[in-house]
């Protein structure tokens, strides 16, 4: 039974941690990254000043809520990584339930902000937002990997 729970959790965690990578940028780099994010999304979405004025506070709240969920999920992942062999069945059950609750929270947050984005942006720009986020995340992970690789060499 533990083997099945472990397989489930590992699969779920590996699928869900792309955005919430356990990698903290130094504050200067975080600020630089946020500036790049703003420029990238503004350009991709072709936001005019009126749209940008309404969009960014909502988008920032969206990112803050999702980041909070990802950090909670990371704590669960760390606990499993460090204590897996010593956890009881009931502890594992609680962690898997907590993880699923976070999945539900993430879905609900995304659904809530999807409606808010639709109230601010055209449907076309909402889709462009999701695509741009995916492209940006992929590009940033690529850069992080390349940076780590060049530091090793």
- Report the sheet-strand fraction: under 5%
Note the gap between the termini. 43 Å
Unreliable residue stretches:
1-22
- Binned, the helix content reads over 70%
Summary, kept brief:
With 153 residues, this protein is mostly helical. It is built from five helices and no strands. Helix content is 86%, strand content 0%.
Give a verbal description of the structure.
The chain is an all-alpha fold and 153 residues long. It is built from five helices and no strands. The protein has helices at residues 2-16, 27-45, 49-83, 89-120, 123-152. The termini are far apart. The model is unreliable at 1-22 (pLDDT under 50).
Keywords summarizing the entry:
single chain; 153 residues; mainly alpha; 86% helix; flat; disordered N terminus
Question: How do the strands and helices of this protein lay out in sequence?
Answer:
Elements: H1 2-16, H2 27-45, H3 49-83, H4 89-120, H5 123-152
